[in-house]
Amino acid sequence: MNRVLTIQLRRFGLPGAVLVLLAGTAGLYSRTVAWSGGWISLAMSLREYLMLMCPAALAAGAWLARQEHRAKVAELFAGTPRPRHQRVLSTLAAVGLAVTGGYLGVLAVTAPWIAGTARYLPGAAVAVAAVGVLAVIAAAWIGLAVGRLLPNPATAPVLAVIGLLAIVAGPAAFRQEWQSALASPSWGMSPFSEFQTVPGRASAAQAILAAALAVAGAILLAAGRWRTRAVALVPVVLGLVLSVAVMPRDHDNIVFDPVAQQLVCTGDAPRVCVGRVHAGLLPEVTPHARQALTLLARLPDPPTAVQEDTNDYLDDDNPLPGPDTVVFRLEVGGDGHLADPDHLLPRLLQAAGADAAACPEGYDVPVARAVGAYLAGRPPARDPQESPLVREPGGPPVPDYDAEATVLWEGLRQLPEAEALARVAAVRKAALECTGMTGLLDGGTR
After folding, report:
1. Predicted confidence (pLDDT) per residue in 159-185, tens digit
2. CA-CA distance, 92 to 197, in Å (whole number)?
3. Which of 68, 400, 402, 445 is deepest in the core (most CB within 10 A)?
């Protein structure tokens, strides 16, 4: 059996592995910024691009069946005294190992991209990746069975198109998020944040259904009569029932990992902290953070620490620190390192270190930017990490925050240093107390 398996891997398995590898690698490297923030982001993006790898595995299985039919390998094996189940097992093993190698190969060529900065490896990342292995095996075995039944040159490409449409459009037929997650192995896997995770029960439910589909494909391949092939419906029904029972009903697309949000801090003062998932970036953040604290030390009651905001836009469970701490959002670039490090210092100094989230209604963006630019000693500039404002059709003009901040910054520069710092301190105090920042830099003339 080992010899047969080796021959099938060499002759037929390699193309399937290469097809899956190319599909997944092309998808992942087209959007490195989506998964460069950590291992869970990589695992989820790997699962997201099952929308390409599963159709590729379907086509690979059907293509292998077609090749066996053309080479009359099945007839040759049927003439040997070896039992049918052994011949089927060798074929299943060859195809399964091939597509698994392709899937893991995608992980192997992407992991080094973030290995230098990714420190936190949650168990959920391993589970998410493992479900992907089952998904590509199931797709390949189903493709193999269909290709054996329909050994037509058009079977492989048609299966690939059907698989792609099923994965992309299938979840839209369901109203509940947990139902959509079962309908597609890539549903809900587009990472929104590095603090995101996938519940263990969700991965277990998806794994059960993928395993059931793989068993169904194996039965279809092994069965010699249509009546026997109908038995393939049994594992599908059982798998669907079990996966529905296991899948959490409150499963949402965005679930946060509290361990990833835990703070990792420098051992010396002044203290600088980032979320555990960003621990590898702490050496890159620390110099900018401590420079910001040095510049803010010219103000009365200045902050003495810097901390990443580990809450996200949809997660406000963690309380914000007090006024003695500068809070900021850490952005990871497509290379796994700090995104736009040159803009981190002005970002830390905006509103003289006061957090916009503490008082969003009274936060004046041009004033905050002008203050940060003055303390940083550079002109205001739009942060590349900020989304540009887009004017709605027929709506009011979009405010030019950069132009307004530049005017205020130039006004601050013309003042004596003591008076300029007094106004900067007034902006910080107003931002912390939610009393309104507008007009504090120009005497209310705006």
Report:
1. 999 999 988 887 877 777 778 888 888
2. 32
3. 68
